[in-house]
Amino acid sequence: MAPVKDPDYTLNIFPYQDPSTGKRTTAFLVQTTKVFVSFRYEILLQAALEARTVRIKIQGLHAPELLMPGSGPARGWKTFDGLVGHYQVVVVKQDKSVNTFDIDVADGSIALLKSPEHPFILPSTDSAELA
Q1: Closest to 73 measured CA to CA, from 129, 124, 32, 131
Q2: CA atoms of 72 and 90, how far apart (whole Å)
Q3: Strand arrangement, sheet containing 109-114
Q4: How confident is the model at residue 52 (pLDDT cuts 50, 70, 90)?
Q5: 62-80: average pLDDT
Q6: Which of 26, 32, 36, 106 is the most exposed place for a label (fewest CB within 10 A)?
Q7: Any idea what the Cα angle at residue 62 is, between residues 116 and 95, rounded to 5°?
Q8: Is the pLDDT of residue 105 over 90?
Q9: Is 123:112 a contact under the CB 8 Å cutoff?
């Protein structure tokens, strides 16, 4: 039996209020578990809402436009308006691996209902900074 591999990414799903518009949305923040010491890389994401399914495709890393030194995980995020109720979240990695999660979105809270046994992306409902 193959050893269980540690997750490559984390996925934070949380209610988010845009500071500039005050608009309430649901944020999906993907971060690498690896910390980069030279730059803060961006994770390129393709995301879509199809009925009750949020699809997120991880398309790779992108070097920052301003080559300012900094350390931390690579990150990328998407927000969706108007999510209420039960959703399936499907995350696809570049190698075509797929993880599927079930979430429930209520007013101001998100519950993780189901996740894979050995995911490549570790889900959380903890909020985080998007800046």
Answers
A1: 32
A2: 25
A3: 109-114, 98-106, 85-92, 53-62, 42-50, 72-80, 24-36, 9-17, 121-124
A4: very high
A5: 84
A6: 106
A7: 35
A8: yes
A9: yes
Tell me which DSSP letter residue 66 carries.
Answer: S
For residue 17, give the amino acid letter: Q
Structure tokens at 58: 């991880």
The amino acid at residue 11 is: L
Q: Domain count of the chain?
A: 1
Output the six-digit token pair for 108: 């101001």
Q: In this structure, is residue 3 part of a structural domain?
A: no
Residue 2 lies in a domain: no
Asked if the model's pLDDT at residue 75 lies above 80, the reply is yes
Give CA–CA dist 25/72, Å, rounded.
25
131 part of a folded domain = no
Q: How wide is the angle at C-alpha 114 spanned by C-alphas 111 and 118, nearest 5°?
A: 125
pLDDT band at 96 (very low <50, low <70, confident <90, very high): very high
